[in-house]
Each structure stands twice: as C-alpha cells, then as structure tokens.
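2024-03-11 09:14:02 INFO queue: dequeued item Glutathione S-transferase 3, mitochondrial, len=140
2024-03-11 09:14:02 INFO validating residues
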Amino acid sequence: MAIESLLPANFGYAIFTYLYSFVMLSYLGLQVGGARKKYGVKYPTMYSDKEQVFNCIQRAHQNTLEVYPQWLVFQTIAALEYPIAASVLGVIWVTSRFSYAWGYYSGDPAKRMRGAYGYIGLFGVILLSISVALKLLGML
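2024-03-11 09:14:37 INFO prediction written
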C-alpha cells in the first residue's frame, strides 16, 4: 500500500514542518557546541559556574528539547486530520524557538520571552489534537 493512500492530502506540509524543526534543533545544538569552545565548558559539564551567557545558550537548547517530544506527538495527531492548519501552527512554534533562543543568547533570561508567541502554535496543535480525539470518540 502506497503511503499516499494512508496519509491525508497535504500531509507533505507537515513533513516539511518536521524538517524545519530538524534545522532549528541542529542550529540550537551547534550554538551550544560553539559556546562550549568559546567559554571553555568541557563535556560532560552541563552548566558553567562562571559564564552566565553559556548557561543561557545551553538552556535555550535544553528547554526546546524538553518540550519537543510533546510537540511532535501533538503536531502529528493534528496533522493527520488538519495538515495545513497543523503545519501553520507548527511553523509558528518552530520559528518561535529561534526567537526564544536569540533572546536568551543575549545573556538576559527575561529576553527569552520574545519567543512567547510560540504558545499559539503549541496550544493550537494541542487543541486540534483534542478535536481529533473527540471525533474518534464520536463526540464531535
């Protein structure tokens, strides 16, 4: 059976959203690697006792990794029924993680809130996932 017959039309947009998220995660990881060299923080040390900016760069990546599995689940569930809406919401969330990181990289943790608009994308796919669940249960 061909995959095109299993997935909804326009699911390709969701796949491109996943690829975009891979680019974002790679970028954040590379920033941590560069900061390790710049600030002399050796593996396996996670945080520096001396370099606040390194800690901010590390936290931007770590926080994204902490929420990423949940986002993937809700993004996928939502995209199976609403591929275009889920993809738009996914792009909002992924883009917000760049804004979040760039704000954090300033060394002022409060500036990470520049990425707060990402909650639109995250809560959006959660709501769409709830809609899918309700449809499957015959409640919608």
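2024-03-11 09:14:37 INFO annotate: The chain has one domain: 10-137.
2024-03-11 09:14:38 INFO item closed
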